């Protein structure tokens, strides 16, 4: 069944409300603020946090719902895009119909509701990727994908906003956990060892390489395992996993039929005063200079696309070695979310170095698209 236009499946007053809230100002928070505020999850603090989200989340969700309805090249009309837009409108309606949070019982109910919203949006990234794929299918093959600038910019804003929404919900929900582990404040680890996280992420990436190719290059990690700083381990895990996975794939494919031993992928963790930098180096042959800008776009992947119209996103949780081309651009957004960045430098014919910069100070406001 084709998805209906928003005005058909949602009331006129709801759509008007979305436009009203979409014009309101968003309020950014910093890692440090989340950490300090969450270090004492008293009933009073949880109530304040719930009240803040009750007002903040509809603003952020409304902005994205409006944008999903006004995309260029007919992307808004694609079935997968309509599905995502409906999730945003449903979540907006749930938030707006929830009464004012006056006491801790209201707050507990609200927490259950936003938990359900987070689950509803679990498959936004692959579903949106499917929408872009549906768009590409109907496009003139002569169109250069890098020229579709508005779509790249929209997806950057959209996914960055999604990271923020999920971080705010995840942080609030996790503050309810009784007896948290030492040094853990919600999703944040106040003494996270980047070397440890890099080790776990690279082991997971290597296991996938082994499964897919039957062998995998070694990974050597350099850095002080006892060095720690406050960060969100799941974010770092995701970024390192994606970068290492790409490096392993490049090296594996370059040396698969060679009699030479595949050189290891090297991970170097360096601590600066302002930044923690993680460099991931491989000798996988590098990327052509003309191809470098493409790796940060959402319409490009050197690998075969694992998504198709019939992918059941509810059940298919296999992580393939090469995805729908979103690993690198989304990793850069995760880095930028807390004031960092991701740079990729390549030597064609030799290999690639990815530099992941993370802010050590935790005081930059989340960027609000």
Automatic annotation (TrEMBL):
Recorded hits in PROSITE patterns, A to Z, give: HIS_KIN
Q: Which InterPro entries match?
A: AK/P_DHK_N_sf (IPR036784), BCDHK/PDK_N (IPR018955), BCKD/PDK (IPR039028), HATPase_C_sf (IPR036890), HATPase_dom (IPR003594), His_kinase_dom (IPR005467), Sig_transdc_His_kin-like_C (IPR004358)
Its localization reads: Mitochondrion matrix
Histidine kinase domain: residues covered: 233-362
* Homology family: Belongs to the PDK/BCKDK protein kinase family.
Q: Superkingdom of this entry's organism? A: Eukaryota
Report the EC number(s), separated by commas if there are several.
2.7.11.-
Q: List the catalytic activities from the record.
A: L-seryl-[pyruvate dehydrogenase E1 alpha subunit] + ATP = O-phospho-L-seryl-[pyruvate dehydrogenase E1 alpha subunit] + ADP + H(+)
Q: Which GO terms describe its cellular component?
A: mitochondrial matrix
Classification via CDD domains: HATPase_PDK-like
- GO annotation terms (biological process): regulation of glucose metabolic process
Q: What molecular function does GO assign, one term?
A: ATP binding
> What keywords are assigned to this protein?
ATP-binding, Kinase, Mitochondrion, Nucleotide-binding, Transferase
Which named protein is this?
Answer: Protein-serine/threonine kinase
Q: What class of enzyme is it?
A: transferase
């Amino acid at each position: 069944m084709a998805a209906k236009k928003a005005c058909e499946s949602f009331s006129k007053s709801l759509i008007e409300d979305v436009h009203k809230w979409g014009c309101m100002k968003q309020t950014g928070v910093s890692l440090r603020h989340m950490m300090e505020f969450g270090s004492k999850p008293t009933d009073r603090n949880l109530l304040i946090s719930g009240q803040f989200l009750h007002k903040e989340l509809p603003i952020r969700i409304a902005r994205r719902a409006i944008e999903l309805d006004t995309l260029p090249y007919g992307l808004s009309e694609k079935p997968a895009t309509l599905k995502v837009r409906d999730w945003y409108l449903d979540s907006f309606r749930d938030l707006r119909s929830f009464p004012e949070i006056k006491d801790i019982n209201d707050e507990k109910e609200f927490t259950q509701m936003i938990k359900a919203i987070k689950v509803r949006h679990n498959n936004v990234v692959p579903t949106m990727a499917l929408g872009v794929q549906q768009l590409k299918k109907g496009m003139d093959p002569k169109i250069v994908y890098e020229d579709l600038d508005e779509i790249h910019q929209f997806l950057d804003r959209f996914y960055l906003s999604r990271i923020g929404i999920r971080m705010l919900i995840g942080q609030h929900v996790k503050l309810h956990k009784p007896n948290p582990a030492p040094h853990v404040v919600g999703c944040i680890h106040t003494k996270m060892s980047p070397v440890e996280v890099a080790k776990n992420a690279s082991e997971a990436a290597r296991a996938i390489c082994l499964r897919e190719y039957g062998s995998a290059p070694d990974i050597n990690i350099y850095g002080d395992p006892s060095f720690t700083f406050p960060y969100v381990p799941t974010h770092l895990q995701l970024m390192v996993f994606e970068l290492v996975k790409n490096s392993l794939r490049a090296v594996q494919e370059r040396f698969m039929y060679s009699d030479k031993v595949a050189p290891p992928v090297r991970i170097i963790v360096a601590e600066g005063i302002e930044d923690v930098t993680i460099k991931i180096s491989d000798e996988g042959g590098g990327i052509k200079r003309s191809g470098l800008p493409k790796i940060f776009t959402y319409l490009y992947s050197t690998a075969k696309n694992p998504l198709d119209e019939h992918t059941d996103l509810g059940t298919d949780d296999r992580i393939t070695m090469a995805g729908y081309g979103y690993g690198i651009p989304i990793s850069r957004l995760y880095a930028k979310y807390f004031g960092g960045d991701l740079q990729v430098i390549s030597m064609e014919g030799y290999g690639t170095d990815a530099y992941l910069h993370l802010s050590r100070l935790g005081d930059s406001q989340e960027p609000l698209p």
